[in-house]
From TrEMBL:
Protein name per the record: Glutathionyl-hydroquinone reductase YqjG-like
Gene Ontology CC terms, in alphabetical order: cytoplasm
Gene3D superfamilies membership: 1.20.1050.10, Glutaredoxin (3.40.30.10)
Annotated positions for site Lowers pKa of active site Cys: 282, 325
InterPro entries hit by this protein: Glutathione-S-Trfase_C-like (IPR010987), Glutathione-S-Trfase_C_sf (IPR036282), Glutathione_S-Trfase (IPR040079), Glutathione_S-Trfase_N (IPR004045), GST_Omega-like_C (IPR047047), GST_Omega/GSH (IPR016639), Thioredoxin-like_sf (IPR036249)
Organism of provenance: Rhodamnia argentea
Record-annotated active site: 81 (nucleophile), 224 (proton donor/acceptor)
GO molecular function per UniProt: glutathione transferase activity
Amino acid sequence: MSLPRPFLFSPAPSHQQRCFALSPSPNKLTVRMARSSIDEVSESGAFVRTPSAFHNFISQDPSSPFPAESGRYHLYVSFACPWACRCLAYLKIKGLDKIIGHTVVKAKWERTKDGDPHIGWVFPTSNTEEPGAEPDPINGAGSVRELYEIASTVYSGKYSVPVLWDKNLKTIVNNESSEIIRMFNSEFNGLAENAALDLYPPHLRAQIDEANGWIYDYINNGVYKCGFAKQQEPYEEAVEKLYKALDKCEQILSKQRYICGNILTETDIRLFVTLIRFDEVYAVLFKCNKRLIREYPNLFNYTKDIFQISGMSCTINMDHIKLNYYRSHPSMDPLGTIPIGPNIDYSSSHDRGRFALSK
Ligand SMILES: N[C@@H](CCC(=O)N[C@@H](CS)C(=O)NCC(=O)O)C(=O)O
């Protein structure tokens, strides 16, 4: 059974939302949809992320088009990608990995199609080709691009991960991590091993949404704004906001265990995926070097604390992270040399137990 493909993803975003190569006059637009993050640059040289396109929602309601079912959905991720790793973290800590399978792509971007210069996520051809990566067991696809092509014949955006795939309808349910984690938090609770864990509890929702807003703009996406800025001014603007936000987190974490109180929430998982990549990658490649995370006592110990939550450490593969960032962006670093350090041990002891957890 298949649904009409265009029905499944949102209409094209408005021209402010999209990332374009613009002609000199905004009245005479020559637009080119970004096919890769590195193309997502405005006229002023600032990085502007393209919105995701597939926004279907899995529901615990059995009559919904995408009902929560065991074995029906599959998550495609890269260990390099912080957005995809949010979803993988949820899969692990909610105890969903027996009912939702996942596949990890190769770390480094490669050509996705003969005769086309596009580079992106690809699958290995065997289990032994690259440690940590696996061939696509569901569709036998060679690349993530092929998954998008199966899901839609008219899609023309980025071939990004995460991809949440419906094996029944053979299509993409959703490719936006902030939505996927909400589904994983609440919609599979009839099947999850750790259903009691609620990372978006009703009484904290306003606080979580508020914190997610500035953490996304200035930290999660902020590091990309630093790294992908093509001019000095947008870079400096982004760096200043990034460090103000990190200082704010440090301050919050000097008084409580997590960002929204003494209780782990979605905000912490979203912040963690950026912090764990910061000293190893963003400080070097994205020029976020005003201060390192390991120079912030509370942020550093907090990063270790979250890394040590049961199930989290297996979502972090630093070899994939470094291989991807340092080797997949030749326009940023044509040599692709991978820095040897700093090799931080996030499993070492931390001091966050000094805060009593709230119920
Ligand atoms: N808003 C998306 C962003 C996903 C995203 O940008 N993923 C990057 C990897 S970190 C990607 O797959 N990029 C592919 C490309 O640029 O070609 C989400 O949070 O899920």
